[in-house]
Amino acid sequence: MPITTSGLTTLFQQSTKYIKQLMNKPKKAVQGVLFITGLMALVACGGEEADSNVTRIGVAIPNFDDTFLVNMKDSMSAYAEKQDNLELIFVDAKEDTVKQLGQIQNFIIQQVDGIILVPVNTDATQPMTDDILKAGIELVYLNRRPTYLPDGVAYVGSEELRFGEEQAKYAAKHSEGGNIGIIMGMMTVEAAILRTQGVEDFFKEKPEYNIIRKQTALWQRSQGMVVMENWINSGDKLDIIISNNDDMALGAIQALRAAGKLDDTIVIGVDATPDGLMAIKKGALDATVFQDGRSQARGAIDAALSGINKTPRDKITWIPAELVTKDNLAEFEAKQG
């Protein structure tokens, strides 16, 4: 049965501040502290030997408060329960790169068979990747593609540019021009950068559309509402809101509804989360682009097991995107079961 671990031991949490102080020092010094910290955490937990018949995969998630990531985590747990002798160990980095680095070191010390990693920062993965490969542990990156993806490392996810392109196409099909605001995720994550780029590239040659606002809301619904409230209070007229995910779009919808502007604004998200689909049913969210978290979750486990069992696997597995609107919602939900 899969188990969930919400973080490292209290001892490790207390040591995080010292790790941060060492980030400007030589890499070996930082690695030494991380190694000792992880070892102490392992001893504190009892240092029990793992059952050799059980395949153990550590799963590093950036944020357990992110709706899409939690749904994907639940899909992984459900899929793992159908496998023989497979144990998943989940950890939450709370969007902290240093904390995630420590969690990966702890997995290495625990001698897990594989690691599935959704990175906090896609530009800061090389130290983790190199350490995992050096330890002889199979590595699969999931959902957020790192800039550093050497031989022997797999990736499962979607082509992020497509999400932005699909959002932009929908907006253009259902309007004749207007002012656009883009609510972005964390700009240390490739998904936010490329989804935004997909929108910008599509409208580049369409002078009737103007992107007048762009701001990050950190993937969070509450922040999406704050960003939208600020835009409304600025007095700028926004006809189309394109959000990098559903949660931020739902936050924008709350602000637009409170200001009496929702009926005059097109709002488009990404992910097709349960809350996003419900908003489409109610006519609040115009469209979302489905990011198939369930297939990504299964694909990551399959890729990790293939690596562990030394069977062939693709280096990159692309999971296709799909536009969901009120017109095809019933068909989409039927396919999802």
Biggest beta-sheet profile:
7 strands, parallel
Structural class: alpha/beta
Strand content: 15-25%
Low-confidence stretches: 1-23, 25-48
Mean pLDDT: 88
Q: Examine the secondary-structure arrangement and name the CATH architecture of the largest domain.
A: 3-Layer(aba) Sandwich
Within the largest sheet, what's the order of strands? 1-3-2-4-5-6-12
Based on CA inertia axes, which overall geometry fits? elongated
Task: Quickly count the helices.
Answer: 12
Beta-strand segment tally = 13
Explain what this protein looks like in three dimensions:
With 337 residues, this protein is an alpha/beta fold. It has two domains: 3-158 and 293-319, Rossmann fold, CATH 3.40.50; 160-291, Rossmann fold (3-Layer(aba) Sandwich), CATH 3.40.50.2300. The chain is 46% helix and 20% strand. The chain has twelve helices and 13 strands. The chain has a seven-stranded parallel β-sheet, with helices on both faces. Strands 8-7-9-10-11-13 form a six-stranded mixed β-sheet, with helices on both faces. Helix 7 (190-203) links the parallel strand 7 (178-184) and strand 8. Helix 1 (10-21) runs antiparallel to helix 2 (27-44). The radius of gyration is 21 Å and the shape is elongated. The two termini are 24 Å apart. Residues 1-23 and 25-48 have low confidence and may be disordered.
